[in-house]
Amino acid sequence: MFQPLLVTDRRGGINPRASRTLMRDQSLPNVALIGFMGTGKTLLGRMLAHRWGWRFVDTDALVEQKVGCSVAQIFERFGEEYFRQQETEVLRSLENLHRVVIATGGGVPTRTDNVISLRRHAVIVWLTAQPEVILQRVQPIQTRPKLASAAEPLAEIRRLMSERETAYACADIRLDTSTLSPEEAVERIEELVRGWKPRNLT
Ligand code: S3P
Questions:
Q1: First vs last Cα of the chain: how many Å apart?
Q2: Which of 2, 13, 103, 153 could disulfide-link 198, Cβ–Cβ 3.0 to 4.6 Å?
Q3: Quick one: average pLDDT of 32-49?
């Protein structure tokens, strides 16, 4: 079970260096970042892993490696259902890892099995952002099969985000990254993960 360990200085603030050392504690669960495209999962996941000396994995990259072509090509050649199946298999293969930050594809929580799998070994952090910010961040849109063919991408972002809201709400922690710099977002995630009230990993 996750034991939050806070190291405070004399004034009660969190001591960042000691905090980083404690993130090396073997008993900590993994951290999984979920959320819509363009909310910062890959960038922030990579930064967090680097900061804590943890391993970083990205489920889209693992699926690409497994299948041997890009996500856009997988959608085009084999269809979304095939992509989702590969994604589920990749997630399963992560269950025995430790001290890993996982950036997930935006559709991962739409399958209950994926959520159950992540909840077995990770604190789940839901990154959000305003739809207008997301539209700017997901360019070039041709690389995003769920948005590429939409006549009105902003409306499609809004529609998909609202359709997935309940699925994303499986998270333990939520953070809006719209106005945060990557460094600020990373600080905030670390604070939130460390202050997270433990639940049984099921
Ligand atoms: C998808 C998000 C993408 C990728 C695929 C489908 C989605 O991942 O898995 O294009 O359904 O939201 P990112 O969220 O990492 O862009």
A1: 10
A2: 2
A3: 98
